[in-house]
Amino acid sequence: MRRAKISIIGAGNVGATCAHWILTQELADVVLVDIPQFPGKDKDGKDIMVDNTMPAGKALDLYESSPICGCDCKFIGTSDYSHTADSDVVIVTAGIPRKPGMSRDDLIATNTKIVGEVAEKVAKYSPNAVMIVVSNPLDAMVYVAWKKSGFPTNRVVGQAGVLDTARYRAFLAEEIGCSVEDVQALLLGGHGDDMVPLARYTFAGGIPITQLVKPERLEQIIQRTRDGGAEIVKLLRTGSAYYAPAAATVQMAEAIIKDKKRILPCAAYCEKEYGIGGYFVGVPAVLGTNGVEKVIEIELDDNERKAFETSVQHVKDLVASVKL
Ligand code: APR
Predict the structure, then answer these.
(1) CATH fold group of domain 5-158
(2) Which pLDDT score, from 0 to 100, does residue 168 have?
(3) What is the CATH number of domain 161-320?
(4) Is residue 191 annotated as a catalytic residue, yes or no?
(5) Which of 11, 79, 100, 291 could form a disulfide with 55 if both were Cys (CB 3.0 to 4.6 A apart)?
(6) Confidence class of residue 105 from pLDDT cuts 50, 70 and 90?
(7) Among 266, 189, 187, which Cα is nearest to 221's?
């Protein structure tokens, strides 16, 4: 039987950690792709970025750990997209983080260029893959990847909701004093600041969360979840979160590779769904071999709908600032 193949574009913290989670689950063979990034000279003495052995080093290091974890996965690290050919899933983490003095618009412009070029190459070498986009600002980058790949909407999906929900579930489990496994939650809308938590759809061991956590405490936990990314940045000082984002991404990849039909909160394309009209927004979606196989529309009360509409408007404003 052919083992599944996952290519990861961007072999930085999130990308390499995805590869590690994939290995521990023996989910797929992995190709790690990154760009040449060391200054050097071409044959005429001109300054260029020279070949980059970093992804090859990470790939070899991961492979050398495989006998210990008892998992048979192959790893390639490269700058050459031909190695990614015929991937089942491609995870896109390429991009740059915001640097001091850089506006949000500057970041969007830079990452639009990077993610756009990456998506074109992904489509060229793996025309049948499902692409999971992780690069930020997520709600805009998943749109860019869709436009530039020319993929059908079901084969492009953004990772945000699984991470936000995981943070929320972790904080709730800590508050209640129960297993993280027993907390089930649903968040809608954009990533981070824009997420819309739904207390009515949150349970611990089947018990509505409102019976276990007082409203003011729940509000504090929701705010901490919204600020979850910033909390980690503040602690790390030199980068952003990667263990939980990578775990979230690999859970989505697993659902696709194993055709599990998992219902996970993802940035999925919504046309008629929720009346959104052609944007990628965080909604519950069924993930299987064909990528997003269904967007599930849930009932919302007036307050929930209002919060969701505000979040969707932010996504639309963000996408409007993208210049393709
Ligand atoms: N092609 C391939 N890789 C690229 C490209 C490109 N065109 N441009 C940049 N990269 C690579 C960088 O060289 C770097 O190794 O993407 C990698 C990004 O890794 P990190 O800087 O370590 O960032 P990381 O923490 O992994 O975050 C990646 O995920 O969660 C989001 O906000 C986060 O947008 C960021 C992305």
Answers:
(1) Rossmann fold (3.40.50)
(2) 97
(3) 3.90.110.10
(4) yes
(5) 11
(6) confident
(7) 187
CA-closest residue to ligand 1 atom 20: 12
pLDDT above 90 coverage of the chain, percent: 85
Any residues with Cβ below 6 Å from ligand 1, and which? 9-15, 33-35, 37, 93-95, 97, 114, 117-118, 134-136, 239-240, 242, 245
- Does this model's pTM top 0.85? My answer is yes
Ordered by start, the domain boundaries in the chain are 5-158, 161-320
d(CA 134, CA 76): 21
Question: Which amino acid is it at 79?
Answer: S
pLDDT, tens digit (0-9, with 9 covering 90-100), for 109-129: 999 999 999 999 999 999 999
Per-residue confidence (pLDDT) for residue 196, from 0 to 100: 93
Q: Is residue 239 over pLDDT 90?
A: no
CA 218 to chain centre: 26
